[in-house]
């Protein structure tokens, strides 16, 4: 029965909590909000949506990138690991990293500075020597080496199929399907859609049960339409088909940032 699987999950999660562990990545710096929404849960689909220019990308960054990263680096003894594929549809990888640099400078040194100030974009001022030296420090280089080993940025994959294939490849590289008898299934046996193997599939299992796999798209209104599709159909294909498939089949946590104010979706 499916109910038997539910009971096993309840039992497993209770043991984890009783032992002092976590069943979700909490938002440590949002303690009140975390009493309502427990945090980042495996196999959930999150949608961050708002009108243009109200900070939805910044909120999504904080809740689904910076807070999870803060958690695993603050509590390494939990043995939880994190892997994020971040698909950037609006900005380049370098632009995004500069935004995170601004955040880490503030967290490490208490200096509030915008990405444009870091890049000396203003006509009347240049980045200070203090901040300049921080960006060139070994400490900051080490921080970003670790950060980029956890968060993988993609700014050249922009269509639903391409994003799906990238995320599916991660599933193939880091886990296996299990059959009804408890044996691993060879991925080659799943290449034929009419294979008898599909009749005996039970579930997908990640090699490391402590890993949180997050796939994030910012933002879906900028998805490149598949051949012959409107933007509206492309967004529907991503959210209703491909993203849900990654969530339900492989237990990936999906995060979509979506702009509400798009006037035309075709």
Tell me about this structure:
- With 266 residues, the chain is of the alpha/beta class.
- It folds into two domains: 35-91 and 155-260, Rossmann fold, CATH 3.40.50; 92-152, no CATH class.
- It is 42% helix and 17% strand.
- The strands form two sheets. It has a five-stranded parallel beta sheet with strand order 1-8-7-2-3, with helices on both faces. It has a three-stranded antiparallel beta sheet with strand order 5-4-6.
- β4 and β5 (184-185) form a beta hairpin.
- α7 (160-174) runs parallel beside α8.
- It is globular, with a radius of gyration of 21 Å.
Structure summary:
It contains 8 helices and 8 strands, in the order H-E-H-E-H-H-H-H-E-H-E-E-E-E-H-E. It has 266 residues and is of the alpha/beta class. Helices cover 42% and strands 17% of the residues.
